[in-house]
Amino acid sequence: MTGSGRRLSNGTMASYGFGAVAYGVKDAGFGTFLLLFYNQVVGLPSATVGLVIMMALLIDAFVDPAVGFFSDRTRTRWGRRHPWMYASALPIMVGWLLLWNPPSVMSEPQTLVWLFAMAVLVRTAVSCYEVPSVALTPELTSGYDERTRIMAYRYLFGWVGGLLMLLSAYKYFLAPTAAFPNGLLNRAGYSGFALAGALLIGVAILVSALGTHHEIKHLPHAPIARQTLRDSFAELRETVKNRAFAILMAAGVCAYTIQGISYAMSNYLYIYVWGFKGPTFVYLTIALFSGVFLAFLAAPRLGKSASKPKAAMTAVLCGAALNTSPYWLRMLGVFPEVGDATLLPMLFGFFILGTASNVTGFILGASMMADVVEDSEAKTGRRSEGVFFAGSFFVQKCTSGIGIFFAGMILAVAGFPAKATPGTVPVGTIDRLTLIYAGLYIALACVSAFFFSRFPFGRVEHEARLARLAGAPSLDAAPREP
Questions:
Q1: Alpha-carbon distance 373 to 219, whole Å?
Q2: What is the spatial distance between Cα 22 and Cα 159, in angstroms, rounded to a whole number?
Q3: Does the model's pTM come out above 0.85?
Q4: C or N: which end of the chain has fewer Cβ atoms within 10 Å?
Q5: How far is CA 186 from the centre of its chain?
Q6: DSSP-assigned letter for residue 185
Q7: Is 87 exposed, middle or buried (0-12, 13-18, 19+ CB in 10 A)?
Q8: By C-alpha distance, which of 125, 162, 177, 145 is closest to 6?
Q9: Any idea what the Cα angle at residue 430 is, between residues 429 and 435, rounded to 5°?
Q10: How much of the chain exceeds pLDDT 90, in percent?
Q11: What does each C-alpha distance from 1 to 235, 267, 376 come to in angstroms?
């Protein structure tokens, strides 16, 4: 058992958190630009692109738990997680470059195969890094509140990585030019975007692995019994039957699918609904980061002062209300029109608070996943951080799988044209697009909030469980409201 609820040093916390930049880069690229690139730039049908990317997600259903399971069972002088982290850097970088540079001589079917193959390569390599990396969280500390603080740092740096890529894309690589007034349609710009992302991914992984290397001697080194492959799968099935884990998976599928749809739809909404141009995207990036920073400050405090499950439920519902309000108000005719001086301040105000709410919910959910480790250990006698966080990570990757699929379907149902020029899309099409998007957002958020509310334990149960695992008597282990 991880016997220490110690507080990590600032250096360790910063280097560990910085590793999430790699996932942030991947998430921003997949979620925000991949559908747009292959649909509006390369010229493939939006629904087909979404389907291909979702099909790649099916591979992850096998890869993620396998990585988690085998990293749990890895035993080297560098511990369980670090060999995977070091080995993943180069494959991710190479796959990332290939994903954004499909050969222009290929036919449409060949390009779809390329997209599928490169998406699988990148996501598999990312799994080999992110699953072992995030599985370090419950190993670094057993502290109930310290885990929330760790996750706050990881989400902060993850968003920093993603927003840096957004800023560099909007400001430099995909900025408007004389040849491309809408810089997002400039195919050549995506090559520079890919190279910058690959370099940032490599640096983030190595900084995180090297910066936490000294912690290896403090991490759990549970013994592994020799067993058959059949026994291994039976052990895996027993582990994932944990009720708290299943509830968080269900809540996460809905919450991260919302994020996936929002990412994939974002540029369509910014450009075609709100009329964003040039510098506006820079202001947008600042607004989004402001929301993330608010969540970084708020989530640990909420985790200390309130129930994590109830706080996560409330955050998800608030995020849905805030992020969809501008679209409902626009359809009611009471939101400022494009070009009105009050549009951007009002819109960014909703985005800042909505982002803060959503990220707070994600941080609290990830912290609860870390707490599930000891719940499982008490029931099975095994620590399975890798398996649990593989499940969590698979859910997160629904962001760029199921989310992009739904976004592609939304565009198809709304009748949104390919290679559309801003300002020329019919108002009826825009209205259908926003109505479907906002309605689906609200529905998924309500389901996610319901599952968060059903999480079965809180601080008292967690601390009593740690005491039992340590062999100490518990003064009050009676079940309480989480």
A1: 14
A2: 10
A3: no
A4: N
A5: 27
A6: G
A7: middle
A8: 145
A9: 100
A10: 43
A11: 18, 46, 11
Q: CA angle, corner 114, sides to 113 and 115, nearest 5?
A: 90
Q: How many helices (H) and strands (E) does the chain have?
A: 18, 0
Cα torsion angle, 140, 145, 151, 152, sign: negative
* 20-76 confidence digits (pLDDT tens): 999 999 988 987 889 889 988 998 888 888 888 888 877 876 788 888 888 888 888
Residue-level pLDDT at 398: 67
CB atoms within 10 A of CB 151: 28
Token duo for residue 210: 């090297």
Instruction: Give CA 202 to chain center in angstroms.
Output: 18
Contacts of 185 (CB under 8 A, 6+ apart): 40, 41, 419
Q: Which two tokens stand for residue 153?
A: 């740092």
Contact at 8 Å (CB) between 144 and 371?
yes
Report the alpha-carbon distance of residue 34 to residue 41 in Å, rounded: 10
Cα–Cα nearest to 402, from 248, 237, 252: 252
Q: How far is residue 6's CA from residue 3's CA, in Å, rounded to a whole number?
A: 9
Chain centroid to CA 38: how far?
21
98, 121 contact by CB (below 8 A): yes
More confidently predicted of 470 and 295: 295
pLDDT of residue 62: 78
Q: Can you say how many angstroms the Cα of residue 75 is from the centroid of all Cα atoms in its chain?
A: 28
Angle of CA points 298, 255, 326, to nearest 5°? 75
Three-state DSSP class for 65? helix
